[in-house]
Design goal:
It is a single chain. It is elongated, with a radius of gyration of 18 Å. The two termini are about 15 Å apart. α2 links the parallel β1 and β2. α1 packs antiparallel against α8 (about 225-235), α2 runs antiparallel to α9 (about 240-245) and α3 packs parallel to α4. It has two domains: about 5-110 and about 215-245, 3-Layer(aba) Sandwich (D-Maltodextrin-Binding Protein, domain 2), CATH 3.40.190; about 115-205, D-Maltodextrin-Binding Protein, domain 2 (3-Layer(aba) Sandwich), CATH 3.40.190.10. It is an alpha/beta fold. The strands form two sheets. The chain has a five-stranded mixed sheet with strand order 2-1-3-10-4. The chain has helices spanning about 10-20, 40-55, 70-75, 90-95, 145-160, 170-180, 190-195, 225-235, 240-245, and strands at about 30-40, 60-65, 85, 105-110, 115-120, 140, 165-170, 185-190, 200-205, 215-220.
Length: about 250
């Protein structure tokens, strides 16, 4: 199923219950929160955070962007975080299995994958199977990173073995390697290809080989300001947040 036909699988009752449990109240939010968010959310969440601050003048939002796998490890080690937004459900499950969530996670976005190539596609890459060419410099993320795991699923579906020239720490690093000319191609999120334009192009992956990325979000159990954190989650899943995410290519609510 293509991204444009997806609909978010939000759990409104769980969200409402979680926000109520944390004492979330949009109208009275104040203070400061730190949001740990997947690297692929960098541009959209920066705008979303600014919009949230505009709606709540007494609130300051600070972001820590990185691979979801690294972020959940940091939270588990005691890093101060109020909200966790993951690029996959597996790393969110790591948080919930450890009891690190303060509310039930809810899905707020979906993404799909594309092959990223340099502007003009100089290597004439047309399909996923082309990435098995040993003469191509293909870069991927580490297997514990969501985009690395998603890419391997694509390779498995295509029945190919791809040997990357490097394993990067997050999806933005994959983009950088291709844009800088250090690699010929990599698999990233469609939103990352869009963000990299015009310095990069994307090669579509057909439905039967593609993987849809699911993004869940939750309040962190040890949040220092659970009410404001819950209000931020509410904003992300609400109409204003969904409109911002849609502008960056994520599936709208």
């Amino acid at each position: 199923m293509r991204l444009r036909r997806l609909r978010l699988a939000l759990a409104p009752l769980a969200l409402a219950a979680g926000i109520a449990a944390c004492g979330g109240d949009d109208s009275s939010s104040s203070g400061a929160i730190t949001v740990f968010a997947a690297a692929s959310l960098t541009d959209s969440f920066n705008e979303l955070g600014a919009a949230f601050e505009d709606a709540h003048p007494d609130v300051t939002v600070t972001f820590n962007f990185g691979a979801s796998s690294a972020l959940v490890t940091q939270i588990g080690e005691g890093a101060p975080a109020d909200v966790f937004a993951s690029a996959d459900e597996a790393n969110m499950t790591k948080l919930t299995d450890a009891g690190g969530n303060g509310a039930d996670p809810v899905v707020f976005a979906h993404n799909e994958l594309q092959i990223i190539v340099a502007e003009g596609n100089p290597e004439n890459i047309r399909s996923v199977k082309d990435l098995a060419d040993p003469n191509l410099l293909v870069v991927n993320a580490a297997p514990q990173v969501p985009i690395g795991a998603y890419a391997q699923q694509v390779f498995d579906k295509a029945g190919i073995a791809v040997t990357p020239v490097s394993l990067e720490e997050n999806v933005k690093a994959v983009v950088t390697k291709v844009v800088s000319g250090e690699a010929d191609a990599g698999i990233v999120y469609a939103t990352d290809v869009e963000a990299a334009a015009p310095t990069a192009d994307g090669v579509e992956i057909p439905d039967e080989l593609n993987v849809i990325a699911t993004y869940p979000i939750t309040v962190v159990k040890d949040s220092a300001d659970a009410a404001t954190a819950a209000a931020f989650v509410d904003f992300v899943t609400g109409a204003d947040g969904q409109a911002i995410l849609a502008r960056y290519g994520f599936a709208p609510k």
